[in-house]
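Internal ticket #5521
Category: modeling
Description: The requester needs a full-assembly model to guide mutagenesis choices. All entity lines are attached below as received. Residue total reported by intake: 440.
Assigned to: D.W.
Attached entities:
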Amino acid sequence: MKKHFSEELTLIRQTVLRMGGLVEQMTHLSVQALVERNEEMLKDIRKMETEVNQLHIDIDEMCLEVIARRQPAATDLRFLSAAMKINTDMERIGDQAINIVQRTESLLTVPLLKPLIDIPRMAETAKEMLRDALDAFVNGNDELAYETIKKDDLVDQLKDQVFRELLTYMMADPSTIPRALDLILVSRHVERIADHATNICEDVIFMVKGKDVRHQGPLA
Amino acid sequence: MKKHFSEELTLIRQTVLRMGGLVEQMTHLSVQALVERNEEMLKDIRKMETEVNQLHIDIDEMCLEVIARRQPAATDLRFLSAAMKINTDMERIGDQAINIVQRTESLLTVPLLKPLIDIPRMAETAKEMLRDALDAFVNGNDELAYETIKKDDLVDQLKDQVFRELLTYMMADPSTIPRALDLILVSRHVERIADHATNICEDVIFMVKGKDVRHQGPLA
């Protein structure tokens, strides 16, 4: 049965949301596994990655196929082009979650260096940013996209704070260096997840406004 | 005067190459500035970034405009879609070079920790990968793209080697920690440039073969 154009766009929107939900969960669980020292969670995340990789290929194919066959007008083309760009960012968020899994695997072999406070806060904020970015995408809500971009500063501040704190641990006791380095890398992976959420917001604003907000420095 | 379709594609190809040349130079100079402790170079790189950011916007606009107006068939659509994806990766290579500039600025305020050997080798390889990836793109050469992807392993090995070596410095003398951390981060930024070159190769293979090679694990 042939689908209507609007149904095809709806299917793409739904598939993007499904992939978004998965990488949001991967983000959450990767840091949660570290906090709870839970190896089972790590396996779940790796299973999710397989699904994310398949969705990544599917979304690109669906979008290209629709562009080729429907020859969409400007607005729909902007939607499809945004979906493909967002697809790339989501896939890389999945990669970052896997990087966190790898650091966590190493951290679970040694005693906890310190209770984790800022890294879970970073992950919570990055996850919120991702959810809001995808909400903004499906609802074409550029206001929400602008608001979400602002939260990236908080994540950057927390990353700097994590870095400074762990530096003092390392300087005071060199035996903490390997663990502290792993935690610093985790915080950077989370920061990059927030960066990808920011990229998604910029794509949404371009989609809605037809205006390129990238490379404009801090937003008003 | 109206341009022919083939002229439009040629212009896009040329613009991608121009941007590629710039981010290749940024990659080279950012590490060279660190090796030679040369602050002037850092300024040059920042100027290049402004140009790269403008080209990033231009290429996306050109591609979308051509897709909307020409309604290209499958092969040309794959070319245009590859150009847009490659555009994203090149812009992020520029971002990574700027990250290296920031670390170098910090490293130039303190004495050199050790002569740099592996990091310049990593940068050289990443730069070669980028050049070959773009060659593969403009010539539709998927063989070259496959060959280039294989070099990513060398960059990863060097990154691990840099990490292990700097770890021994830090453990032996905590006063070296801040400098060693900056160097570790530089090596990771270079590694990510090589990752982006790998992404470009995968896009080229998809463009040529219409086959998605992403997420297939190690290539034969």
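Resolution: model delivered.
Comment from assignee: The CA atoms of residues 137 and 204 of chain B lie 5 Å apart.
Ticket closed.
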